[in-house]
Amino acid sequence: MTLQPKGMLQIDGQELEYLMLGPGPDEAPTIVMLHEGLGSAALWHEFPQKLQQETGAGIFVYSRAGYGASSPVSLPRPLDYMHREALDVLPKVLDAIGFRRGLLLGHSDGASIASIYAGSVQDHRVRGLVLIAPHFITEETGIQAIRQTRQRYETDDLKQRLSRWHSNVDNAFNGWADAWLDPAFRSFDISEALAYVRVPVAIIQGSDDPYGTVRQIEIAQEECYCPVDVTLVDHAGHAPHREASVTTLRAVSAFANRLLRTHGEAASQAA
After folding, report:
1. pLDDT per position as a tens digit, 141-163
2. Who contacts 218 (Cβ-Cβ below 8 Å, separation ≥6)?
3. What is the full DSSP assignment across 107-127?
4. Rounded CA gap, 46 and 53, in Å?
5. Are 15 and 63 in contact (CB under 8 A)?
6. How far apart are CA 108 and CA 131, in angstroms?
7. How many angstroms separate the CA atoms of 227 and 235, rounded?
8. β-bridge partners, 247
9. Lower CB density within 10 Å: C or N end of the chain?
10. What is the pTM of this model?
11. Rounded alpha-carbon distances, angstroms, from residue 131 to 86, 221, 238, 240
C-alpha cells in the first residue's frame, strides 16, 4: 500500500490510526514506534519528528486498538494482550506497511510488545530494538504506581487530560489498568523471550521511574545474548523521551544511526 502522512490501517476488522514521517519503507529503513499503555500515536508529541530529522529513516507511528482514534476493544482485555499484540497484530501491521528493514522502538507496554515479537519471531527485517522503560516482569512498586494512577483518573483531572488523546478514554484507561491490577497479572514474565532476541538492544530508562526499577535493565543484561546498550537518564521518570528529550533523542538516534549504517542503509544524520 502507499502510505499517506496520516491514515488508517485495516487490520482484522479494526481501524488503526497511523502517522508516516519521512521516506516510505520502500525508500529507506523504517523505525516502527509502539506506544505505552496509556499512549497513542499523538502522545509521542514531537519525538517522532525529531527522530526522523536525526536519522533520516522513515518513522511509522500507530495507535493500537483501544487507543487514540483507533477502533475500541472489548473489555476486559485478556491478560495476555501484549502477547496477542506482538504475535497476532504487529506482524500484520509490518506486512501491511511494506516494512523491509529497520528498528522497533517501544515505550513501556510497547517495549514489552517489541521484546516479545523479537524473541518469538525471527524476522530478518528487524535490525534492532529500542526499549524505553520496558517491563519484563511485574514489580510491586509498579503495581502501586498504577493504583495511584487509577485513583487520579477517578478523582482529579487525569481523565480529562487523557481524553485529548483518546476517542474513547475509558476504553483506553480501563483496558490497561484492569489488566495490570488483576491479581493474575502478577505472573507476567517475558524474560525468557529475551534469550531468543538476536539483534542489538538499546534500553533507555529514567532513574526515577515509578513504574519500573533498574531490575528491568538487569534482567535484560542477564538474559540477552545480544549486545545491550543502557542509558539511565538521571531525574527522569517513566517517559524520558518527554522529560529529558535531548538526552533520550541523542541515545536513540546514535544507536539507530550506528546500527543502520552498519548495513549501509541510513541516511546521513541531519546537521
Report:
1. 999 999 999 999 999 999 999 99
2. none
3. ETHHHHHHHHHHHH---TTEE
4. 11
5. no
6. 8
7. 26
8. none
9. C
10. 0.95
11. 14, 13, 12, 11
In the three-class reduction of DSSP (H, G, I as helix; E, B as strand; rest coil), residue 211 is classed as coil
Q: Are 41 and 93 within 8 A, CB to CB?
A: no
Distance CA 113, CA 36 (A): 10
Q: Which of 57, 36, 42 is nearest to 99 (CA)?
A: 57
* Secondary-structure percent of the chain, ordered helix, strand, coil, rounded to 5: 40, 20, 40
pLDDT, tens digit (0-9, with 9 covering 90-100), for 48-73: 999 999 999 999 999 999 999 999 99
Task: Tell me the residue length of the chain.
Answer: 271
Residue pair 21/59 in contact by the 8 Å Cβ criterion: yes
Closest Cα partner for 168 from 25, 66, 260? 66
120, 196 Cβ separation under 8 angstroms: yes
| Amino acid identity, position 3 | L
The secondary element (H helix, E strand) that includes residue 58 is strand 58-62
d(CA 261, CA 103): 12
Ramachandran bin of 108, using left for φ above 0, alpha for ψ from -120 to 50, beta for the remaining angles: left
